[in-house]
Structures are given as C-alpha cells and as structure tokens.
C-alpha cells in the first residue's frame, strides 16, 4: 500500500493547466459562508451553544509528523474561516495564472508512503464526468456508533500543532494511496468518501477489494483537485504531500475549516506504524491500530533477530519504475524498501554507490554495484520497456546476482508502497537473504 511518489522538476512557477484556482477559492468561500449562515441559525436553537462549547475537549494522542487544521484554530470560529477565505480569494486573484506552483511536466526522483502515486494514470472510477456517487453516513446510529461519538471531540497532536476533530469522522477523504490503505485497514469502507483511483490496482495497492467499495475515486498526486475534494463534503482529510499538486491542495484545503492531517514520510516501518496510530486516533480506531502495531513489532523483531545470526550480509540492489514505463530507478533511503533490506539482514547496494535518494538508474551504476542480489519491482502487468532493455544487455547478464540466479521479482504493492503487506514482504526477503547467506557459508 505504499504510495510511491516522484518529485517534479518543471512548472514550479506556473499554475496547473486546466485548474480553476479562482473557482476553487470561490468554492471554499461559498462553503464557509454557508457554514456561517448555518452556525447563526444553530445559535438561535436550543443546545447550539453547548455543541460549540465542546470544541477543545478530548484526549491528546501521540505526536507524529504532519500539519493540521481544526474547526477552530487559536480560538478562531466560523467568522475567522470566512475571513481566511476572503484573504485566500484575494491572494489567488492577485496570483492569476502564475501564482500557484504547478506540478511540472516530468516525473522524476522519488520519495519513497513514500514513492509515486500512479493514480493519475490509473483507470477511472466508472462514473460519468461530473457525476458523484452518493455518500452515506457509515457510522450508523446504533449503540456502538453512539459510544464512539462519546469519545469526541478530541485533539490529535501532530508535531507542535493540534487537529481538533469534533465528531467521529464518517466521510473520510484519504487522498493519498498510503493514507487510503491505512484507513481501509482500520475502518469500514462505508465511512470513506473518496480515495485515489490507484487503490483499485493490485500491482500498487493491498486493499483493492475494500477500495472498490468506496463510492468516489479521484486522481491523486500531481493531479489532485481540492475543489473536487470539497464537493464530497468530507469531515476529515488525510494527505501525504510529495508532489507540487498535493502541496497546492494542502494549502487550499487548510482554508476550508475541515480537519486536515498532513503526512510527509512513510519511509520506515517505524514511521508507518506511527502514522497508522495517528490515523487510528483521528478516526476513533486507536485500539485497533495499537493492536496491529503490536503484532507488526513482534514480527519485525523476529526477522531482525534471525538476521543477526547471518554471518554474511549480502548487498541487495532494488531496481524499480516509479510510474508506468518510467524506466528503472535506484531506490534509496527515501523509500520504505531501503528499510526492508536493512531489517532483513542485507546491505542496500545504493550505500555502496553513495546514492542517498531515489534516482534514475544507469547501466554503469548497476555494474559498479555488482550486487549479490537484485530485487526487481513490477509497477504493473505491462512491464517496463526500458528496464527490460537494460536486463537484456550483456553487461547486465554478467552481473554476479544474475549469474548466480539471485534475481527476485515483487510487486510495488509488496515492497515500495507503504501498507501492512510490507511486513509479509520483510519476512519473505529475510528468508531469501538467510538462504543466500547460508549457501555462501557452506561454499
């Protein structure tokens, strides 16, 4: 479930083609204006003041990486949000077509959550353009739902800031593949309003069946449209910001008065566990998240303990596309696959090459590394012509790993995209490394 992401290199000073940023800001302003009118009416009814007064109560959770926007920030209420929207309108109007950074043209080096989100190239959701699937209140109205809502409002601490969540979210917008994977591990799909289209791709995602039950799918990553997100009326937004488009959307959504949790990194198993617990606390599923994390920690510790008994630490080179037919990349420390290799008892070959982050692979680099083992990542079932061309070269066939039959293929959903399945992959890679080490010891 890891959302492999790539940075962009062009268009940082230009707005995204076809994106109506002024329209987006107007939509935000209209939403907030509507909330202000509704709040005025509520204040005139019985019990409205009590509802407003509940705002900052609740328990605080573990501190994680990200940013927030609650329904009140530093005491600012609906009127404050309306003022913020007016300021946003003025800012975007002044910027015109050149003021909002674009996502660029070329998909380049990767974060590794976290690696590139392929949702802008994945199949659509089957809905006609402009047609939205209905959103239901998945929390229900039974005793369990009432008990869950009794634990809200609550505050989720993230870094030095706090997200205030008034009620248990029932229309969650998980806008990045990594966040969508975690939400669907913890909550029923009926509580999720929208996810990236890439959730339906088995080569990229783990929770594909659950993802298909979510009514709305959107393009993620660089093509993320905040106006479309707001049209689904989410009560919690979860987002990982790697692409310019995600950072643009994050800045705009923060003005809408919707609780927003922003993540930056999913590049280690520890960070994945922390982010899972943060999401669990935000949606009222902290006990389930904690239980999953405890099981993960036990399994990870078991793999690491077995790896310590290996007398040989083989070098392992990961070659992976970062999108459909992008060609091979060397995956560095910014991708969770690096952590998997280390914990499995291997030495990442990128360390031998002095490569710290994900970069385009060349035949010269691969030959210089001459790894003991090679892990090839499949981005889709169509294959990657550039990677296949590299593998057909005599130089590649002369590599030690190739000669000794130590080349393994795994899907992006298993290795490079953060999801709970990476623990299964850690165990599989750990066994692969142990078998190689044992064979070398006996040689």
Automatic annotation (TrEMBL):
Keywords: Coiled coil. Residues 1-12 have a biased composition (Polar residues). Residues 171-437 form the Fe/B12 periplasmic-binding domain. Residues 1-68, 103-155 are annotated as: Disordered. SUPFAM superfamilies: Helical backbone' metal receptor (SSF53807). Residues 269-313 form a coiled coil. InterPro entries: ABC_Transporter_SBP, ABC_transptr_periplasmic_BD. It comes from the Bacteria. Residues 28-45 have a biased composition (Basic and acidic residues). This is ABC transporter substrate-binding protein. It comes from Paenibacillus residui. The lineage of its organism: Bacteria, Bacillati, Bacillota, Bacilli, Bacillales.
